[in-house]
Structures are given as structure tokens and as C-alpha cells.
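[recover] target loaded
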């Protein structure tokens, strides 16, 4: 796909994917780490990790609702969340 016609979220997930792998794999690893940190009986599933990452960014928007970093990251996390179900 031509990079010029990609949405911001698609561009961000493409760049992150080259560094961290597919969101499903990366978020699975995060879910396992959070399981250990929180002493949970099971890992947090990737689709819940995605929601939790979005929660972090939306919580930050309460303080700075026009912060471009948070808004851009929300676009990227939303696209990564979509990728889990394709």
C-alpha cells in the first residue's frame, strides 16, 4: 500500500510494527508482563491491553486535550486494535 494514502493510524502502526512486531504479538508480551506485575492468575489478553493503552492516552487528554502526541498515539492504538481482528 502506498504510504502517501495511509491514515495516520496506519502509518504509526506500520512504523511500530517494524520495530516491535505485530500488535497481537507485542500486546501479548505486554499482557504477560502485566500479569506478573499485578500477580494475576492469567495474562491480560491483547485486545484488553489495547484498551488499557488507549485508557492511558485518554486520561492524559483530560489535562491537555489538544496534545498532539496523545491524539496521534490514540490513532495508532485504534488502528492496532483493528489489526487484532483482521
Amino acid at each position: 500500500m502506498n504510504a502517501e494514502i495511509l491514515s495516520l493510524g496506519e502509518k504509526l502502526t506500520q512504523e511500530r510494527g517494524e520495530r516491535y512486531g505485530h500488535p497481537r504479538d507485542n500486546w501479548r508480551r505486554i499482557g504477560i508482563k502485566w500479569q506478573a506485575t499485578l500477580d494475576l492468575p492469567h495474562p491480560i489478553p491483547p485486545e484488553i491491553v489495547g484498551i488499557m493503552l488507549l485508557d492511558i492516552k485518554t486520561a492524559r487528554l483530560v489535562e491537555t486535550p489538544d496534545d498532539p502526541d496523545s491524539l496521534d498515539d490514540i490513532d495508532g492504538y485504534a488502528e492496532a486494535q483493528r489489526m487484532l481482528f483482521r
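[recover] notes: The first helix runs from residue 8 to 20.
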